[in-house]
Design brief:
The protein is an all-alpha fold. It contains 15 helices and no strands. It has 2 domains: 25-109, no CATH class; 119-338, Heme oxygenase-like (Heme Oxygenase, Chain A, Up-down Bundle), CATH 1.20.910.10. The chain binds fe (ii) ion (2 copies). One fe (ii) ion binds next to helix 14.
Amino acid sequence: MTLTAPVSTRTDDRWPMRLPEPRGEVSELVIGRLRAGDGIRLEPDVATAATRRSPSLLDDDDVQLALFVLYELHYGGLEAVDDRLEWEPELLAFRGELERAYEAELRGRIPQPHATRDIPEALFALVEAADDGPGLSAWVERDATVDQVREVLVHRSIYTLKEADPHSWAIPRLHGRAKSALVEIQADEYGGGRPERLHAEIFAKTMRVMGLDDRYGAYADHVPALVYASMNLMSMLGLQRRLRGAIVGHLAAFEMTSSIPCRAYANGFRRLGLGDDAADYFDEHVEADAVHEQLAAHDLAGGLVADEPGLADDILFGACACLTVDGRLCGEVRRAFEAGGSALRKALP
Ligand SMILES: [Fe+2]
Ligand SMILES: [Fe+2]
């Protein structure tokens, strides 16, 4: 079965995303506030209480969805929601409470590595230590069914349909060699001047080839909390200048764990006979990310720490946070597949 991509669809009907269904008290309040305007008040105390009650914010559907929706105001926006709410102090204060708790949980879970050696070397060592055997990409390469491949794309769609955007927040916050390296990476992510080669566009094509809806947030009600935890981590680090070291470390770890898994994904697509259009996104990343990982470790992270040595620990924190959150998500999906099930909250249409 070789599938070819339908003719490229317009991109202007893919955003803004529809408001998702609430998953609890906090997301209900946030979504209600966005929908109803001034009729509902967001009290920061409610956010604080909810995060204190939560046994694990990483897995908390309600808190992660609320945070995601609030961040979305800074990206493509939300259907029927006033764009001016992006800078509404009440929403920012509420989001600040959720962010504080999420960052604290991450810093508590991840033993803070101390940069005692060369940063690129330390990053490569972290990535190697986090590699705990065959992951989701190996499953796709050897065992996945077509339905499981579609599910993997759905999990990835929340980030990948706006691939690279959260790291772009860091561009004006860096200087010199680090800025230049980040822009070089991002220029590739954004297609190098060819809109059809924007990585997000190539991914949208993959979704269409696989019979999936490529509108942003089409599966917002299907994906589990960890998908949002992963996306929110990037937004939280990218949108705060004080965390610029961490977003750089995040990108470095992300790029350093991409090329080899992408080859496995592409092999899996070909094993299933899905064709070049379906595998294009993953093929693109085999070579691109082999280059990006070097740029990210040496020029971006290495360049930043040469400029601002005080950011070294945060670079490693961002890298560890990326490996922890994304590793947990991939593990959860793989375990669900091994058990013959799905990690989605509801079945795909
Ligand atoms: Fe990419
Ligand atoms: Fe990349």
